[in-house]
From TrEMBL:
Lineage of origin: Bacteria, Pseudomonadati, Planctomycetota, Planctomycetia, Planctomycetales
InterPro entries referenced in this protein's UniProt entry, alphabetically: DUF6263 (IPR046230)
Record's protein name: Uncharacterized protein
Positions with biased composition (Polar residues): 333-342, 352-361
Region described as Disordered: 333-361
Source organism (scientific name): Planctomicrobium piriforme
């Protein structure tokens, strides 16, 4: 249906066209009386692309049981805060997960996928502490948190994706977490779980879905310039509400490029510390910015990079308060399987990683 401005444009175009028809004979006579060097060559009007010719497509999952593909997810977090003496302090962590996604079942209204973790790499710089871990090079002794990462390898869980491209059900997650914690002392398990959730990004283990499959529009064709909105409620480690606007920026035969921009609504939570003390964290606000490139034939992410910045105020139990800025950069890449059942060899520094995924199946 045309907007009011569009109708005005049509009416104006018709009016100008009628004026041209009425003045045609006069214009021809005038041109005949002018020298040749003063007359303009007649040029064809530029072709106007009709609305029906504008590229559009349904962007959704197109998978079948038996499909499998490796997926790489990297979460980098930077936390900047002012210390008591006013000097800024920066903490940094990086988590890299290599996982294999397998399509288990497909129903009319949902698809069942399973995820198996094949490799975990983690490092952090917090104050004077520096930690590095690689599941392919296990150390003889590791901390409880690193033991949980180690025991994630060759294990996983399943989940169902609904028609709206959102997770509607998770299967086996509790058992998976229990197996990951089997080497962690019972008294430390809760802190380890919270640490893994925090290291995995604001939406935890489902983050690789939210930043890729979960942003696809549902039930309609989209064209470049079309936008849609998604609301996201994050409960842990800090409750916040994220409102993202997705815009289809480019549509080619192979790819769809989606722009991501959003805002974060403030919220407050109370985290209990050991000894009965507490620290209050107030989320003052924040923003989301990024881009995701989707394979049109499968709906899977070719690559996705989302930056989320959260501004916070921290109040300690002794009433000391300071500001924090948290930046979370999540990168997700998938490498669709070839017809031979093996993933393509990716060039560059990631090639050994992709080969590692293939070798663990």
């Amino acid at each position: 249906m045309f907007a009011r401005g569009s109708w005005r444009g049509v009416v104006l175009t018709l009016a100008l066209g009628c004026m041209g028809c009425v003045q045609k004979s006069d214009s021809s006579q005038a041109d005949a009386q002018l020298p040749a060097w003063m007359t303009e060559d007649s040029q064809a009007a530029p072709e106007i692309k009709l609305a029906s010719e504008t590229p559009s497509a349904y962007l959704g999952l197109n998978l079948k049981p038996g499909d499998q593909f490796p997926l790489r997810k990297v979460v980098q977090q930077e936390l900047t805060q002012n210390t008591v003496n006013g000097a800024p302090q920066q903490n940094y962590s990086r988590l890299e997960l290599l996982m294999a996604i397998h399509v288990r079942e497909k129903l009319d209204d949902r698809i069942k996928l399973s995820v198996r973790y094949d490799r975990v790499k983690y490092q952090h710089h917090v104050a004077d502490e520096h930690v590095e871990f690689d599941s392919t090079q296990p150390a003889q002794t590791v901390s409880p948190a690193m033991a949980a990462y180690r025991d994630m390898v060759n294990d996983g869980f399943s989940f169902w994706i609904g028609q709206d491209n959102q997770i509607v059900e998770v299967e086996g997650l509790g058992d998976f977490i229990s197996r990951c914690l089997r080497s962690v002392p019972p008294a430390e398990r809760q802190n380890v779980v919270l640490g893994i959730e925090a290291g995995s990004g604001d939406t935890g283990i489902a983050n690789f879905v939210d930043n890729t499959i979960g942003l696809l529009p549902y039930g309609r064709k989209t064209s470049p310039g079309d936008a849609w909105e998604r609301q996201q409620q994050i409960a842990r480690p800090m409750p916040m509400h994220v409102s993202n606007v997705y815009t289809l920026k480019e549509l080619t035969e192979k790819y769809a490029v989606i722009d991501v921009r959003g805002t974060i609504t403030p919220s407050t939570t109370l985290n209990n510390l050991q000894g009965g003390e507490g620290v209050r964290v107030t989320v003052n606000g924040g923003s989301t910015l990024g881009s995701c490139t989707i394979f049109r034939d499968t709906g899977l992410p070719k690559e996705s990079r989302i930056d989320r910045v959260v501004e916070m105020t921290v109040v300690m139990a002794n009433s000391i308060q300071f500001r924090q800025t948290k930046r979370v950069t999540t990168t997700v890449e998938s490498y669709p399987m070839t017809s031979s059942g093996n993933p393509p060899i990716a060039g560059g520094a990631n090639s050994p990683v992709i080969q590692q995924v293939s070798g663990t199946r």
